[in-house]
Amino acid sequence: xxxxxxxxxxxxxxxxxxxxxxxxxxxxQKVTDGRFDYPIFSPESMRNALxxxxxxxxxxxNRERIHPVAGKGKSEDGGEGDKQQLAVKFAKYPDPEAYIxxxxxxxxxxxxxxxxxxxRTEKGxxxxxxxxxxxxxxxAKALEPYRHNAVFxxxxxxxxxxxxxxxxxxxxxxxxxxxxxxxxAFQYPxxxxxxDCTHHPPDSKGKRKPHPHGKDWTRALLRAIGELNxxxxxxxxxxxxxAPASIIARLTDSLxxxxxxxxxxxxxxxxxxxxxxxxxxxxxxxxxAKEFYIGGEIVKRGLTDEQKKGLEAKGVILDRDSRxxxxxxxxxxxxxx
Length: 337
Prior knowledge:
The protein is α+β, with helices and mostly antiparallel strands. The protein has one domain (about 1-70, about 85-145, about 180-335). The protein has helices spanning about 45-55, 100-105, 115-125, 195-200, 215-225, 270-280, 295-300, 305-315, 320-335; strands spanning about 1-10, 10-15, 20, 25-30, 30-35, 35-40, 65, 85-90, 105-110, 130, 135, 140, 150-155, 175-180, 180-185, 185-195, 245-250, 290-295, 315-320. Helix 5 (about 215-225) packs antiparallel against helix 9 (about 320-335). It is flat and about 75 Å long. The mean pLDDT is about 85.
């Protein structure tokens, strides 16, 4: 069984997920769709936020972000010492049975020579060097295109301070900051195979061993998606929640979603998938319309009473609370607790 879902966030001003800085201009990352550029968040930034959320739940994670520090200064050969950049620390070799992030987000060990010999000695020759991500995600794309909006502010001049900006090489100690800004909701799809969430990959004989924490961890992952926050890239400035204001999901045996996963439209227009369900496109002997779950603001304010009655008559599950709907989906896919 597969879960396909599209999340729509609440709209808000955002300058998050910036790319490289052009002089003093903080640039939002974008993707071109048709004739317009749309701001984006990468799936990697969302996965990192999910990892941090799962860690807050008290669940074991193997990876840990290490933030820049002053370092050790010059290296022995006269070059630069520790670089002032983000880094990642692993507690141990990846272990999908012990760590929830290794289990859901996968890993790749690019090791060779002495490091590969060391790995064989510690973990054995059958230890897998890679694991695919169980959670599949795509870019979070703004509902509205970028309109060349910008915010300007002046940084204060540093006159008396223990340090000099830029190591003392910078001529100016103050700057006019130019920050690109967008006001929009974002939508992003994700997908999970329920068997992959509850079992280990097949062995050489094609048999799958149940994962001891699979069901509990999957419930925690869906809860984390329902509370997703702190997703940002370089020079993040604004508070922007990535939790679902609305969600459309399908729990199905089909290997594809069967609908446009970037389905939400501006100005609260009804998504095509809802029109298709009401039109009978999913009416068949198996009752595929019953595989759909719709929740959040779209149920509260985006559907007419007639549309709600029509969807419920076809077996679609509606819920005014997106997070409660994710619990319902977990109960259906995993069995009730």
